[in-house]
Amino acid sequence: MQKLLIVKIGGNIIDNEAELSGFLESFAHIAHRKILVHGGGKTASALSKQLGIEPEMVNGRRITDAETLKIVTMVYGGLINKIIVAGLQAFGCNAIGLTGADANILPAHKREGSDIDYGFVGDIENDKIPSGTLALLIENKIVPVFAPVTHDQKGQLLNTNADTIAKALAVALKDFYDVELIYCFEKQGVLKNKENENIIFETIRSSEYAALKNDGTITDGMIPKLDNAFDAITMGVKSVRIMHAHGLAGISFNHKPGGTLLYD
Amino acid sequence: MQKLLIVKIGGNIIDNEAELSGFLESFAHIAHRKILVHGGGKTASALSKQLGIEPEMVNGRRITDAETLKIVTMVYGGLINKIIVAGLQAFGCNAIGLTGADANILPAHKREGSDIDYGFVGDIENDKIPSGTLALLIENKIVPVFAPVTHDQKGQLLNTNADTIAKALAVALKDFYDVELIYCFEKQGVLKNKENENIIFETIRSSEYAALKNDGTITDGMIPKLDNAFDAITMGVKSVRIMHAHGLAGISFNHKPGGTLLYD
Fold first, then answer.
1. How confident is the model at residue A5 (pLDDT cuts 50, 70, 90)?
2. What is the DSSP track for A137-204?
3. Cβ contacts of residue B199 below 8 Å, gap of 6+?
4. What is the DSSP letter of B2?
C-alpha cells in the first residue's frame, strides 16, 4: 500500500504568518500522498468580538450558536482555508480546500443527548465517509486541505473539532493506504513532566496510556488529543505521531521526525 | 460532445433564503453536467460596515484593499459558498465548493496598468485553466461551485467578478463539452425597453449588439454583462442565455427556458 500522511495543524501555527509559511513549505515538499487538516486559531474569536459576539464556553468547550457557526464557516472554511491553499499552491502543491460538506466527504449529525447543548456541533458519521472520492483526488495529485466544518446532509453546516476530523479521515482511509496520522502542535511531543519542555516520551503504547492518565502525567488539553489518537489506533490506524510543527521539515527530507509515537 | 451547463447566479438570489433554496433545488435537478458560479450579495457589504470598513467605489467598481479582500474571501469563499454547497447536497447534488486557488483552477494576475488602482483584483489567465482537473470532477459526478475569488499562484488571493469567471470556465471547456453559458438574474431577459419588464429580446446576434448599445437600448449594468457574454461567443462558446433565475426550473424539466439567447 502507498503511504498517506494525514497532518493536523492547530491555531498557534496558523496565527503566526512566518511559522505558517515555513510549515506550508515543509508540507508542500513531502513526497508522499498527503492530507492537511487545520484548526481555527484566534482569528475566529477576534472577529466574534469585533462583531459583538462573546464566545460562550462550557467545560472548556465553545458553544456554537447560529452566529458563531457563521463566523466559523467564514473564518475557518473561507479565510484560513484559502490562505493555506493559496500558500501551498505558491510552493507547487496542488491543494484543494474543503469543508466536510464539499463532495459530501464528512457527513455528520448534530450532537444530541448530551447534558450540555453544544449548538451546531457535528459528530462525524465515520462509516459514510466516501473514501473513493478522497482517493480520486489524492491519486490525481490533488491534496485535500480540510477546514473543521462538517454538514448533516440536510443543508446544515456544523462545527467539528479538527483533531477529530483528522482521526476520521485516517480511519476511513486505513484500508486503502498505509496511513500515518500526525498531530502537529507547539510542543516537542508528549511531555514526561510538564515542568520540562525538552523531555518527551519517544513512544506510548495503548496499554500504557490509562496509567499515564491515572497518575497525572498526562493532563488537561493533552487528554482529548491523546484520546483521539488512541481511538484512531483502536479503529485500526497503525500509529499516530504527536510532534512539533517544525518536525515536518524533517519528514519532508526523510529525516527522523521526532515527537512521540503512539501505537498499539 | 456531452452538454455542460455553466450557470451564474447573482447576489439578489443569494440574499433571499427562499429564492436561493428554490434555485438550488432547480439546479440540483438538472440532469446535464453542470457548474455553478455565484456572486456575492449584500452580506459582504453588511459585514464590512459592521467591522467599520466603508466600501470604496470608483466608477461603479469596488476597490479591493487588503481588508476588503479578507471579507470577500470569508463571505464569498466561506459563508456563501458553503451554504450553497450544503444546500445542494441536501437536494442530492454532489457539489464541491471552490475558489480559483483550489486545485489551481483559476490562475490570475493582479490587475495593473489601469488609471485606477483596483487593489487586489485578479484578471484570469484563461490559457492556464486546467480543463483536465475540471473534467475529472465533472466526469465523476462532482459539481463544481465557484466563489468569485482567484489567485496569482504566488500566494495572493484576488477578487474576480463572477460573470467573468463563468465566461472563463465556458471558454476553457468549450473544446471538451457542448457548453451552454447561462447568466441568471432578476429580470426576464434583456429588456427591449427599460420601462416594460415583460418585453424582452428572444435573441440578440453578435452583429446586432453594437447598434443596440449605440442607440441606448442596452445601458448601464447590462453592458458589462453582455460584453462578457459576447466575449465568450467571440472566443468560441456557441451561445449564452440571459434569463431570470426562476427559468432554471424550466431547464431542469426540459421545458423552454425563456430569457434572451445570444449567439454569433
1. very high
2. HHHTT-EEEE-SEEE-SSS-EEE--HHHHHHHHHHHHTTTSEEEEEEEESSSSSBSSTT-TT-B-SEE
3. B191, B192, B193
4. -
Q: Is B83 on the interface with A (CB under 8 A)?
A: yes
Query: Nearest 5°: CA angle at B145, between B144 and B146?
Result: 110
Which percentage of chain A shows pLDDT scores above 70? Answer: 97
Tens digits of per-residue pLDDT, B150-180? 999 999 999 999 999 999 999 999 999 999 9
> Cβ contacts of residue A143 below 8 Å, gap of 6+?
A34, A35, A36, A88, A93, A94, A95, A96, A137
Interface of B with A in 95-124 (CB under 8 A): 95-99, 101-104
- Which candidate, A34, A14, A145, places its Cα nearest to that of B96? A145
How far is the C-alpha of A99 from the C-alpha of A111, rounded, in Å? 18
Residue from B43, B50, B67, B79 to probe the interface with A (highest A Cβ count within 10 Å)? B79
Q: ipTM beyond 0.90? A: yes
* Residue pLDDT, tens place only, B182-208: 999 989 999 998 889 889 999 999 999
Residues of chain B found within 8 Å of residue A87, distances taken between Cβ atoms:
155
CA atoms within 13 A on the CB side of B178: 4
Whether residue B102 and residue A85 make contact (CB cut-off 8 A), yes or no, is yes
Chain mean pLDDT for chain A: 92
- Beta bridge partners of residue B205, listed in sequence order: B263
CB A151 within 8 A of CB A157: yes
The answer to whether A90 contacts chain B (CB < 8 Å) is yes
pLDDT of residue A71: 92
Q: Which residue has the higher pLDDT, A61 or B156?
A: B156
Contact B153 A74 (CB under 8 A): no
- A and B: number of Cβ contacts within 8 A: 120
CA distance B240 to B260: 8
Percent of chain B with pLDDT over 70: 97
Put simply, whether B138 touches A (Cβ < 8 Å) is no
Average pLDDT on B9-13 reads 87
